[in-house]
């Protein structure tokens, strides 16, 4: 976990601002839809698009490489 958090701390400008996440949370609890998943910021959009495009083994392997595991 320390490696993961260290990596996330080093990505800087690619991480969504807390206000972006808060806005998405507000939308999720007030939009009166049955939407299950919301993407909070460009970083989440990119991560989830990559996740959808890759099989489990490749995605997990790539994530491990990125954080040095």
Give the N-terminus to C-terminus distance in angstroms: 10 Å
> Oligomer, anyone?
single chain
Q: Please mark out the parts with pLDDT under 50 across 5 or more consecutive residues, or reply none.
A: none
Largest sheet: none
Helix content: 55-70%
How large, in whole angstroms, is the Cα Rg? Answer: 14 Å
**Anisotropy-based shape:** globular
Order of helices and strands: HHHH
SSE class:
mainly alpha
Would you report the number of β strands?
0
Mean of all residue-level pLDDT scores: 85
Strand content: under 5%
Work out the helix count: 4
Q: How would you describe the overall organization of this protein?
A:
By secondary structure, this protein is mostly helical. It has a domain at 1-8 and 41-69. It has helices at 2-10, 18-30, 42-53, 56-66. The longest helix has 13 residues, at 18-30.
């Amino acid at each position: 976990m320390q490696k993961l958090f260290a990596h996330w701390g080093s990505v800087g400008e690619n991480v969504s601002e807390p206000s972006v996440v808060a806005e998405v949370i507000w939308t999720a609890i007030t939009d009166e839809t049955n939407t299950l998943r919301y993407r909070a910021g460009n970083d989440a959009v990119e991560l989830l698009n990559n996740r959808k495009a890759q099989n489990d083994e490749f995605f997990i392997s790539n994530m491990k490489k990125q954080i040095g595991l």
